[in-house]
């Protein structure tokens, strides 16, 4: 094997994409010492998206910044910049890991995310990519807009900062200042889901329970998103609620389109495009990819399906490894995956499996490469 590409997503809860790449690449080098290994940790818009660019794009730099967190206390965050492009993770300022033990999507705000966008725009970034995975919020992106200058008013004409539980109190808004700040910028939302803004498949009903919402809170949050959508339609004349990805990050997908003039796109496709993935895999003999669990959702625009599609176009075999292979994963074969393997040797609980994920990934890679070496001979 002369050239091998290693391009996994993170194994959620166990390994970052960069850690997975390191283990996988080491095994390739052991079995094929002369092989040129291209290491490309990837992400599809969720956690780790900024880090994957830092690892994979020459010249990318980390930009540290202090912003307001989900409950408006200050937190340290960063985004990644290369050229005039900024890659910002919503989770840095409004992530669920920032509020462990005190989840409350009724009160959490995305204001700090807007501060990150503002900082990037004011410092010369003209292309801003926003990864929306891992949020603890359900504010429809109004916090982001407010940090960029948008004004929201209640029925008494008072300006206020809405959150998930008070979206219903907005009676009008002005977002001209927000759009002025971004007039020279292209804002792209990296989505890894296709859910609408509200309803049984919307942001509140599908994702808010993971953020600490009970049944009554879910209903209130959904009603707030419905109210916001109706207000946007009334003031702007467009309905953003059913755009694929509108419900991402508690409705931020819809809010970024409405208030920032952003565009929703497939997270993995944009990530691979920005990385010039097609050029970097050219003439490879084999591509390895993977993630924590592969199932039917993986075939719906997640990282593995994106990598596989690019490999298929160049007729490069794609081998996928995962902590578990679940129902529906076979759909990936039609998308370009040549073979897939679970690294977990037996049916064990996640809490036990995660203790041995490094060893199991190493052993699985070794077995695959042993077989590949025999085939090459």
UniProtKB/TrEMBL annotation:
Belongs to the glycerate kinase type-1 family. It comes from Fumia xinanensis. The keyword Transferase applies. GO terms for biological process: organic acid phosphorylation. NCBIfam families: glycerate kinase. One of its GO terms (molecular function) is glycerate kinase activity. Keywords: Kinase, Transferase. This is Glycerate kinase.
């Amino acid at each position: 094997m002369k050239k091998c590409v290693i391009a996994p997503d993170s194994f959620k809860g166990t390994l970052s994409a960069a850690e997975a790449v390191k283990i996988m690449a080491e095994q390739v080098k052991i079995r094929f010492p002369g092989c040129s290994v291209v290491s490309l940790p990837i992400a599809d818009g969720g956690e780790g998206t900024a880090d994957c660019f830092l690892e994979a794009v020459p010249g990318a730099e980390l930009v540290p910044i202090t912003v307001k967190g989900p409950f408006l206390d200050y937190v340290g965050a960063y985004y990644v910049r290369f050229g005039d492009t900024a890659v910002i993770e919503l989770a840095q300022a409004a992530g669920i890991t920032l509020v462990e033990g005190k989840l409350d999507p009724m009160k959490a705000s995305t204001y700090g995310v807007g501060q990150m966008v503002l900082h990037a725009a004011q410092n010369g970034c003209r292309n801003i990519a926003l990864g929306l995975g891992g949020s603890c919020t359900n504010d429809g992106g109004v916090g982001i807009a407010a940090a960029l200058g948008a004004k929201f008013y209640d029925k008494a004409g008072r300006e206020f900062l809405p959150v998930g539980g008070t979206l219903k109190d907005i009676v009008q808004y002005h977002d001209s200042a927000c759009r002025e700040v971004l007039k020279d910028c292209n804002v792209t939302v990296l989505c890894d889901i296709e859910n609408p803004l509200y309803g049984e498949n919307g942001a509140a009903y599908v994702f808010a329970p993971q953020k600490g919402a009970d049944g009554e809170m879910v209903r209130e949050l959904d009603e707030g998103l419905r109210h916001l959508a109706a207000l946007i339609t009334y003031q702007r004349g467009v309905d953003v609620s059913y755009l694929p990805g509108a419900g991402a990050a508690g409705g931020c997908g819809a809010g970024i389109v409405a208030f920032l003039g952003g565009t929703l796109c497939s997270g993995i496709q944009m990530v691979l495009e920005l990385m010039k993935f097609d050029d970097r895999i050219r003439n490879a003999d084999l591509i390895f990819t993977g993630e924590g669990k592969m199932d039917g959702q993986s075939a719906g625009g997640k990282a593995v399906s994106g990598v596989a599609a690019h490999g298929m176009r160049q007729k490069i075999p794609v081998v996928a490894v995962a902590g578990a292979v679940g129902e529906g994963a076979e759909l990936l074969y039609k998308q370009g995956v040549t073979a897939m393997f679970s690294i977990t040797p037996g049916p064990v609980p996640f809490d036990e499996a995660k203790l041995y994920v490094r060893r199991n990934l190493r052993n699985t890679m070794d077995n695959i490469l042993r077989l590949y070496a025999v085939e090459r001979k």
